[in-house]
Write a structure and sequence with these properties.
- Keywords: Cell membrane, Membrane, Transmembrane, Transmembrane helix.
- Pfam families: Polysacc_synt (PF01943).
- This is Oligosaccharide flippase family protein.
- The chain is mostly helical.
- Helix content is about 85%, strand content about 0%.
- α1 (about 1-65) crosses α6 and α3 runs parallel beside α5.
- It is globular, with a radius of gyration of 22 Å.
Amino acid sequence: MSLRASVAYILTRAVAGALAMASLALFVRVLGPSEYAHLSLGLAAAALSSSLLIIPLNTTLGRLYGEAALRERLIATLSMIVMAFGIVLLIAALVLEWQGASWLARGVLPAAALFAALQGLLDFVAQWSTSALQPRRYSRLLLARAVGVLLLGFLALQSSASAPAVLLAMALSCALSLAISLRGSGWPSLKLYDRALQSRILRFAAPLLLTCALSYLLQWGDRYLLARMVPLAELGRYSALADFTQQTLILVCSGLGSAWYPRIVQAWGAQDKLEAQRLMSRYALVALALILPAATGFAVLLAPLAAVLFGAAYRDLPAGLSACLVLAAIIGAAKSFYFDIPLLLAQRVWRQALGIALSALLALLVMWLAVPLLGISGAALGLLCGQGAGVIYSLVAGRGVLRGQLDLRAAGKLVLATLVMLAVLLCLPHDTLIALALSIVLAGASYAVMLLALDVDGLRSQWLRGWFAAYRERRR
């Protein structure tokens, strides 16, 4: 069941990622590097509210949902907190804009606040769907949002090629996707709001608030630092490439985590540590099968993709920028959706916060030293150093909970399949959009063929057994 759910989540994330890629290309091309820098800073402002409340609450929901007796009251209590926070956030943004206290370009802060409020509610419903093992509602939610961002963003740019217009379009797409995905499912009754749960939620979420605030510093601190150290157009170029990388790689990896993490939590909550360990080991192999080809392919294709999709301003990228951004994104995704799982299961949230603090401080220190020498490549290098240090810390701090066991023989086969895929990529042209699409299809096909040929994790044997069973059934 986990494998089928993984496929459903990964496909949903892949389609949503492709639509997000198209939306990003549209925004970058129309806005240009300088205006896209304003959009990036607006998204950074919106992400702050998510880091301070929504992510801690969602993590609390994902961890406590395994206790069946709490579920209805937990959903009602958390949903009321999320909605109240969104209203307060929007009012505060309007007051700051009216008083002229915002340092962002005019109109960006209120639009970012509206987007943050609706995006927070959408993220909450998405977490609820994954915790309840409802991939269909989760898929509707993400796909409707991705389609809405592309279509509404296009319409918004026709009237005003500005960052506030794009942010408003993104906010409206969140509202529409919520309406579509929740149709007929029923919102939890607010009468179930439980004040007694507040203290337990606070005990679990308070350390996570610090963790998420530090994660925000690690993820978005480079934008604020670059805004003070490089021209606005350079910030726009860096932000476009970083957003492009994260929206594809991290979204796909999170789709895999969405399928496996709730099952690991439920096994752990039922005190079935053997099953939790089995799921964790299985998850490690499936994650490696996704991460290896994704990181390799993206490292090769990021520069030509940026040149084709984003335009002339992105043709000549600084040395090392693409590789550092790709590695930082994939290592950060692996940390968040795999290496931090033991810390969350054991509720070692303070240790997790300490690890992220060290990662953020190291990343910003390297950026501060490297940007004057390397430009925006220095920011990417700092991000890579911080994420790499975070993985090492998580491995040490999570010892004694679950072991990250990996079948070395199967892992070797995955490495061989990835090398064959890399050879295919390097032999194909990447100068046009059609050539890039063909390269991606052929490389993916070569990787799939190698997985079957090498019988990774019994994949070929399972496929042949299923095929012969279906054939015999038809013969009858």
